[in-house]
């Protein structure tokens, strides 16, 4: 059975989206970006909400950017090769290949997808991930923690959920970003 992975850049105080501004520096570092690409290359399906999809659809054409460095081209190719499921009640259509639109998040459908998939899946964005966490679907958590405290926004972990996790990997980058991977116990 495939795993469902939740990964995002987070602030030091635990926010995946800042109320104002960005989450701080580190993710644009080529070393970090290459690591992210290598870590998630095996994913077969991305689960997105509308806003995260609208951010990530950039990768549909990023390989064609003039002077795109090799790590950007590789990440774009990997993203294009994966299936995408977008959950939205407002999006009228999708603009990337290998992408389907669903109107509601159905935990049982995601369980079936995990059971039938040969490759791991990723849920992206704190709002959609909160639904997957509440349904007990997330198997691993990958946090890329910046050195910034942002004071508010959308939390990486939703309120009201208790999780007991096992730290299985960690890495510090020269940019100050800290990667930690946890497995659900």
UniProtKB/TrEMBL annotation:
<dbReference type="InterPro" id="IPR050765">
    <property type="entry name" value="Riboflavin_Biosynth_HTPR"/>
</dbReference>
<dbReference type="InterPro" id="IPR002734">
    <property type="entry name" value="RibDG_C"/>
</dbReference>
<dbReference type="InterPro" id="IPR024072">
    <property type="entry name" value="DHFR-like_dom_sf"/>
</dbReference>
<dbReference type="GO" id="GO:0008703">
    <property type="term" value="F:5-amino-6-(5-phosphoribosylamino)uracil reductase activity"/>
</dbReference>
<dbReference type="GO" id="GO:0009231">
    <property type="term" value="P:riboflavin biosynthetic process"/>
</dbReference>
<feature type="domain" description="Bacterial bifunctional deaminase-reductase C-terminal">
    <location>
        <begin position="3"/>
        <end position="178"/>
    </location>
</feature>
<protein>
    <submittedName>
        <fullName>Dihydrofolate reductase</fullName>
    </submittedName>
</protein>
<dbReference type="Pfam" id="PF01872">
    <property type="entry name" value="RibD_C"/>
</dbReference>
């Amino acid at each position: 059975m495939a795993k469902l992975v939740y990964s995002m850049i987070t602030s030091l105080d635990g926010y995946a989206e800042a109320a104002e501004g960005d989450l701080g520096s580190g993710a644009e570092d080529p070393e970090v970006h290459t690591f992210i690409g290598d870590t998630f290359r095996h994913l077969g399906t991305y689960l997105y909400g509308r806003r995260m999809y609208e951010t990530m659809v950039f990768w549909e054409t990023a390989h064609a950017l003039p002077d795109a460095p090799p790590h950007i081209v590789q990440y774009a190719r990997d993203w294009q090769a994966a299936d995408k499921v977008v959950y939205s009640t407002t999006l009228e259509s999708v603009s990337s290949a290998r992408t389907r639109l669903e109107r509601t998040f159905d935990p049982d459908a995601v369980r079936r997808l995990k059971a039938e998939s040969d490759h791991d899946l990723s849920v992206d964005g704190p709002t959609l991930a909160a639904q997957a966490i509440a349904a007990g679907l997330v198997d691993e958590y990958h946090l890329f923690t910046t050195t910034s405290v942002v004071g508010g926004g959308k939390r990486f972990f939703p309120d009201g959920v208790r999780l007991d996790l096992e730290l299985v990997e960690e890495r510090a980058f020269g940019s100050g970003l800290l990667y930690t991977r946890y497995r659900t116990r």
